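Lecture notes, unit on protein representations.

Consider one protein chain, 303 amino acids long.
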Amino acid sequence: MNSKKENLGWGKTTEAGAEIWDANPIFLQMPARRRDWLKLVFYPKKFFLYQYIKKALQEEIKHRDLSDPFTILDVGCGTGSTVIDFKRAFGRRVDVTGIDVVRLQIDIGRKKIKERAINAELDWYDGKQFPFSDKTFDAVYTSDVLGHVAGVELWLSEINRVLKSGGALAMFAESKLGRHALVRNYLFKRGLNVDPHKKYHISLYSKNGLKRLVEGAGFEIESMRSVFWASFFAHPDEFYHELNASGQRGFFVLRMINKLLTFVKKKAHPVSTAASELYGLVEACLIGKWIEAQGYIILGKKS
């Protein structure tokens, strides 16, 4: 079984130039217990996305016999951590399938689900047409993927096509800098893009642009909220490399603050990391609906 040290990392680049998303599952046993679900308070995006899938499953149980399992598709599944989480959370009541465009991730993910005795499918696809028939799935989960997709409209139409009528969409999508991303905007307007994944972010939209795209693809959005408006303080490490790159002489005050925050966060890890993530959840719950930052949790259904 892979340990954290054996993981390739989150948003790391391989020698072949592919960006790898390799993380451990959150739920460590089957069936997942209440205390496992409580851990989601330290994973703000997944807190909303997982809970929405759970809600969709519970609603479906009321209307049909789940001897025919509830079907979930993870689009951009990486190495399968969320696929494993869903199987551990819901067991035989669900069939879970993951697809990804990076073959290495699929190969690693298949080994992981085999090592953990998880009954799920991971498949490679070409990034265009999903290898499934119309109306195959009850729910689609996708996180940190849309910004990497070249043909977003086609991609969203494929999600719609494979979803059953009324099926759930649980998505986190990266976006353009919103008006409340104050520090990022300040730096960006002065020529410094601190997005750690800017090399791979090819399809970034404003909040309203994202909303129009998703609704235009045939979805009804029930909730849309941002997370980590104050990312400069919560995740100073995301700013560190660009702010302190070789030859960087500007932004002296921000660089000094960033160095201090990064040092403190590293020294106080894992407590500091947990506190930052918990803050992200509180922020999303209290003001996330009104903030325009650089990523949005989108919860909706196929119209």
